[in-house]
Amino acid sequence: MAKKKATGLAAKIKKIITREWEPDPSLLLHENIPKPLHGLAPRTVLGSAWWNKERRECYASCNFHCAACGVHKKNAKLRQWLEAHETYEINYQKGIAKYIKAVPLCHCCHCFIHDGRLQALLDQGKLNHGKYLTIITHGEEVLSRAGLVRPPHAEREARIEELAVNGKLADWGDWRLQIGRKKYEPLYSSEEEWLKAYSEKFDEEDS
User: Fold this and answer.
1) Which DSSP symbol is given to 65?
2) Cys-Cys with 68: which of 7, 27, 97, 164 at CB 3.0–4.6 Å?
3) CB 102 within 8 A of CB 82
């Protein structure tokens, strides 16, 4: 008797991993999520069932390699697994962060993208300096090999502040996360409320 063909997610993943792909170091240049949309990710608004399916497919899309540096998860630095990173198309003037897709990243590449949080953890003594240097060095080397450079976090933040000064940055309450055709409002009504919430979050992580 012939074996039944694989169906559902397993069949889709099997089809995905047969595709050819190339590492894309430019993923490490992905913009940080605007503060008004912190805590408002597809994984939180669409639920764990959707997210688990999304991330499994994204891991398979690169045959379980990091989409940025190309390392297989078994050979990755610090942690031998992949992490799904949501990518967005961000319009600062309209205040829209449109979800594109999730991509698989090794722990170092993922942390390198989120360098604002990485620096905050270092400043608060919640991150070992050696690990911080490993992550930053890894990301910079990946970019350097591709002929790319990412401006420091402070410089990128300054550019956003300049948009605000010139009236080209959406007001806090006007920001929306867009997934498909649906848009979601910020969790926090102001930067003050955001700052209070994240200060408490860091305190809880330290307790």
Assistant:
1) B
2) 27
3) no
